[in-house]
Design a protein that fits this description.
Elements: E1 2-5, E2 19-20, E3 29-31, H1 39-47, E4 52-55, H2 68-79, H3 86-103
Antiparallel strand pairs: 1-4, 2-3
Helix pairs in contact: 2-3
Length: about 110
């Protein structure tokens, strides 16, 4: 899942969270999670003043973004000194699953 400014949204991206009026979870829902964006929907969201939204995967790459492979390698390095602690290994596995699910199997970027 990635939070992006609305001006970077493109057709066929899928919402990862509901969009609420005035960015308030207690406000009126505008669009539901799982909705596929279209050009006309993006235009309507702009007219409603929506500034940003959460989309599935990691479709927008900006300077300095790291792919899934780099993030998992960094995670392994951080946990390397505690490989003998089974609880830390459980936490490591939770983080691995989170990053993989949030960014997709390849992190949305072609592996090099």
């Amino acid at each position: 899942m990635q939070k992006i400014p609305l001006n970077l949204a493109a057709a066929e991206m899928v919402l990862a969270r509901d969009i609420f009026k005035n960015d308030s979870p207690t406000g009126m829902p505008i669009c539901g999670k799982g909705t596929e964006l279209s050009d006309s929907l993006i235009s309507r969201l702009q007219q409603m003043g929506v500034q940003s939204l959460y989309v599935e995967g990691h479709p927008v790459w900006q300077e300095g973004d790291r792919g899934l492979t780099e993030q998992l390698a960094d995670l392994e390095k951080r946990f390397s000194k505690t490989q003998d602690n089974r609880y830390n290994l459980l936490v490591l596995d939770i983080y691995r699953n989170y990053f993989t699910a949030a960014m997709g199997d390849t992190g949305g970027r072609a592996e090099e």
